[in-house]
Design goal:
Elements (H helix, E strand, L loop, with lengths): L6 E5 L3 H7 L4 H22 L3 E7 L1 H6 L2 H18 L3 H5 L2 E6 L2 H4 L2 H13 L6 E7 L3 H18 L6 H6 L11 E4 L21 E4 L9 H12 L8
Parallel strand pairs: 1-2, 1-5, 2-4, 3-4, 5-6
Helix pairs in contact: 1-2, 2-4, 2-10, 4-7
Length: 236
């Protein structure tokens, strides 16, 4: 396949709706979604997508949802990042794991240690880059970026340009997003909470009605094939 996107970002949606349709608790949907994403990740490695970013939980998800649901989300994080540390696919393919957002501020110490171990275990890899956004909101990221730049301008006279903004984002080490995939969109294609607003300025978009727990590697590949046929204009 030609014209593979360098950086794909996934906005997952539909876990709770998936569970509700089956008269299950919301966290069952979250568990099924985690299993689905593992399969999609394997497909991304086979297709050789260098950068894959997955929004694992917004700040609101982890601070405003019912405590029992948040507790289960945290349990999933511990299980997933615990597995990543010893996942043959991660080490064989030299996949660097990174986690961005305010997760260090709000997650339990036990959870943070498990995540840190996964980051540490893959810190020297540089072939593929898997980034998770946890306790992340794009508006939050941009607000902090502006605050940093204001502090810098107080110390010295600097030119505010695109490079300076990028250098002060949480995503400073990531390239622009080529393709954003949002699952679970049924007649309401949209972004949420300023998702990666700087990095998605020229992104191609794909909205699928498929709920994340049902999102398959085959559909993921189909979307990439659709992208490969598009002609990007970058505002021209």
């Amino acid at each position: 396949m030609n014209n593979i996107p360098k950086h794909i970002a996934v906005i997952p949606d539909g876990n709770r709706r998936w569970a509700k349709k089956r008269r299950m608790k919301p966290w069952v949907g979250h568990q099924k979604a985690a299993e689905s994403f593992e399969k999609v990740l394997e497909k991304a490695l086979k297709i050789k997508v260098p950068y894959l970013t997955f929004w694992g939980g917004s700040l609101d998800n982890l601070t405003k949802r019912p405590p029992r649901e948040v507790k289960f989300l945290i349990k999933i994080y511990e299980e997933q990042f615990g597995r990543i540390q010893n996942d043959e696919r991660v080490h064989k393919n030299n996949v660097r794991i990174n986690v961005l957002g305010r997760w260090r501020e709000i997650l339990p110490e036990k959870t943070k240690k498990i995540i840190e171990k996964a980051i540490e275990a893959t810190k020297n890899y540089n072939k593929y880059f898997l980034t998770f956004l946890l306790a992340y909101n794009g508006t939050d990221e941009m607000t902090e970026c502006i605050s940093k730049i204001v502090s810098l301008t107080k110390k010295k006279n600097i030119k505010i340009d695109e490079n300076l903004i990028k250098e002060n984002l949480w995503t400073k080490d990531l390239p622009p997003v080529d393709l954003v995939i949002r699952t679970g969109c049924q007649g309401d294609p949209h972004f949420s909470a300023g998702f990666m607003m700087w990095d998605t300025a020229y992104s191609q978009l794909y909205f699928t009605p498929t709920l994340l727990p049902d999102f398959s590697p085959n559909e993921f590949e189909k979307i990439i094939r659709d992208y490969s046929k598009r002609k990007r204009r970058f505002g021209k």
